[in-house]
Design a protein that fits this description.
Elements lengths: L4 H8 L3 H14 L18 H12 L14 H12 L7 H8 L18 H17 L3
Amino acid sequence: MGYTVTQIVEILGCNRQSVHHWFDTFEEQGCQGLYDKPRSGRPAIATVDYRTRLAEAIKTNPRRMGYPFTIWTLTQIRARRAREIQILLSESRVPQIMKEEGLVFKMASPLYNYRPTTDEGLADLQKMQEAIRGRLRY
């Protein structure tokens, strides 16, 4: 049983023109014509080794590496990798690699999520809130 072009479009989520193009290519070249052809362009900079080391670095607390912070930012991790292996990836490529490796950036907890655990901490938080309210005009 075969499928109609409309059914193929619905199943694959593509357009009719693509399906007709595939049919024409198949008729001219057979199954071999449907494989992706090599593309021109610059070879990937992020090798398997680079990706592995990037993931390891992101999973490591920056303080263990001598930095004064505990959470990596995109800028910081890119700079570290550039210093280590002289390769600076774009700001868009690092998050792509992280996603492919199953890693995500998490936002640092801002001050307003601070929950004091002592009476002294609560008093400090209340003073900060009062100072902030004093600067705001309603």
